Amino acid sequence: MATYREIHGKAIKSLSTDPSSTDDEGQIWYNTTSNTFKSILNIAAWSAGSSLTTAREGSGGFGTQTAAVTCGGQTPPTSNLTEEYNGIGWSLGGNMNQARFRVAGVGTSTAGLIFGGHIPPDTAVTETYNGTAWTTSPASLNTGRSSLAGAGILTSALAFGGNTTLTATEEFNGTSWTAKNNLPAGKNSLMGAGANAEECLAFGGTPPTGIANTESWDGTNWTAVNSLNTGRYGAYGAGTQTAAIVAGGIVGPGTMQTVTETWDGTDWSAAPALGTARGRLSLAGTTTAAIAATGQTPSITTAAEEYNVGASVITAGAWASGGVLPATYTNNAGAGTQTSALVFSNYPASTATASYNGSSWSSAPALNTARVNSMGFGASNTSALAVGGTPATAEVEEFNGSSWSEKADLNTARGIAGACGIVTAGLIFSGSPEPSPPVNVESWNGSSWSEVANVSTAKHNLMGCGTQTAALKMGGNPLTTAVEEYNGTSWTAGTALPVARAFAAAAGTQTSALLFGGSAPSVTGTSINWDGASWSTQPSMGTASNYLAGAGTSSLALAMGGYPPGSGSTRNEEFTGQTSAVNTKTITTS
Length: 590
Prior knowledge:
- This protein is 1% helix and 41% strand.
- It is built from 1 helix and 56 strands.
- Strands 1-2-3-56 form a 4-stranded mixed β-sheet, with no helix packed on it. Strands 4-29-28-27 form a 4-stranded antiparallel β-sheet, with no helix packed on it.
- It is globular, with a radius of gyration of 28 Å.
């Protein structure tokens, strides 16, 4: 028997710690700490992704896993909304000129093409997308249709099949559509894949039961090739003529499926199943990195999932229950990090304080003055500031881990304001009293407050995060999408929130923030991420809540207390952003 050295030309390494690079895939080493042989192996799996803003079915999809677009669809009613995926979350793009559903889409996130669909009635309208806005093309399909398939790119696309079992095939060259040779048999609600108009694949389709037929296009004719393992309709396909993927779909009225298959140019093979069975979904990407979004489950959904093949295990971002607070908290303030936090103030006005160590909460020394709707900031559960409250008060207290002590009062009494910073360098902006909140902003240097540049728009129950010289002011009541950024000298308008929100919580910095919970206008548990350039969706909290407090960072955030309808909350939720780890396996003998 050949040795490992004879096969690979080198001996097995001895390492005290496992390699952390996917470049080491397939290598074998001996871990001297665990006294085991190990290797890094490929893995294929779907994992939950961030949800879309709007549930829909029959939307068009195109792009890659880290730069995808879904557009149109039926919400109901028929939608013209576009959402863009950046590999982390979804954000709103430009609206389509013509609302429609069961539409075909091809191309990239900055050079996309949409054609056909149902308005009603069926349409032949073609639109192009530049990553920002849609333009209606002078060229329309020769045959208007919905439930069709498409493949290719903006300047070389193919449209085929459609309602109600059409055989028609058309090619788009970036300027006009030209009729081509028909499919061998009419089908609708079919799927397609292809890199350009000369190399395409058509598969499945035709309600009410779905078929498995697959045809390959060579630029002139369709030729029957090996069939899908599972016949279906109303799924979406992606990839190329020699490397395609299909996920989900419908096998009969109201019967959705999770089945995924990949095509290698010759055969379809079973791949890991979707986590959520769905049909009429949107899919983009490749056989090794795809994203599936929206669809019927049979109710319409905002859910998205990522498919990855590689040496890394992807763990999607998620909220999880943390330690239970020692008492119900609402209209409360908080400070610190996910593993070292402080919650204080309560409704009705209270001196209650609790400390968190990352796993459990314990009662902490009480505030000297009972308060509600106060603001808080600080670095940990031993270093925090409680500021103001309602009815509007100017009182300030500092916590050192053992007790609260009185500090210099605010210049302007207020509560439910924006706040950020640490005990030696903080910022307070806008807030109560209602209905005429102040525009003035105060800066804290550890011993006194000083007036600095006013915000442009005064709000109460707004959200803030960041530092004294790099702050983010978000939303507020009356409900607004307005965002402002502070650079230590002046406030400037920032990118607006995708949805107006108040009574929420925030964590992170001016260029990497997480906003969660609140009212928009009803109580919500949705989360959105700010990366310094745009807002995108993140996984929602387990329980919708407003009047809560937040702490931590955009990838390790803490939601404390809050107000589910009817009562305060002892709930604490922890957010962990998406992570990736090398798939290391121990080699054993059987």
